[in-house]
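Incident log, support desk, overnight shift.

02:14 A customer reports that sequence design results differ from what the structure should imply. Their input is reproduced verbatim below. On-call engineer (initials T.W.) acknowledged and began investigating.
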């Protein structure tokens, strides 16, 4: 019972010796350490959440199917540059995906990468059918994920 009173008395004596400003400084330091710790945790959690859900190849495959697949007049919907064949169109598509992943990390308007990619790859204002592009690509990605889960 006597020990419980000794600790607070020692603390009071310590406060008188060092003064309140020192205690406030220690509290502020502790507060900023906690804020920094929480900040680092949030940073690393966001890195984990921001990891790519789909590979560039999976997105390119979904774009290929959304643009019409083998019966498409313009493979992968590449209209920005002249391409010789489907293989070159795929390379252009993969480069576009890769470059837009970098751009996506530097912007804060979009939270979904496929929507961001759609705004660059297939802008809605360019053609009336472009408004379906994001929905179609997401459909093919979901189908791919479902088939992968089933082991097909």
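02:41 Re-run completed on a clean worker. Output:
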């Amino acid at each position: 019972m006597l020990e419980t009173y000794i600790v607070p008395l020692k603390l009071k004596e310590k406060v008188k010796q060092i003064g309140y400003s020192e205690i406030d400084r220690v509290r502020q330091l502790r507060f900023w350490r906690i804020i920094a710790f929480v900040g680092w945790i949030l940073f690393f959690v966001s890195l984990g959440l921001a990891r790519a859900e789909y590979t560039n190849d999976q997105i390119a495959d979904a774009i290929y199917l959304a643009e019409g697949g083998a019966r498409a007049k313009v493979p992968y919907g590449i209209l920005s540059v002249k391409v010789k064949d489907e293989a070159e169109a795929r390379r252009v598509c993969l480069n576009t995906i890769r470059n837009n992943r970098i751009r996506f990390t530097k912007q804060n308007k979009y939270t979904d990468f496929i929507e961001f990619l759609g705004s660059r790859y297939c802008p809605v204002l360019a053609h009336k059918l472009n408004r379906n592009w994001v929905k179609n690509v997401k459909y093919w990605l979901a189908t791919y994920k479902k088939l992968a889960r089933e082991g097909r």
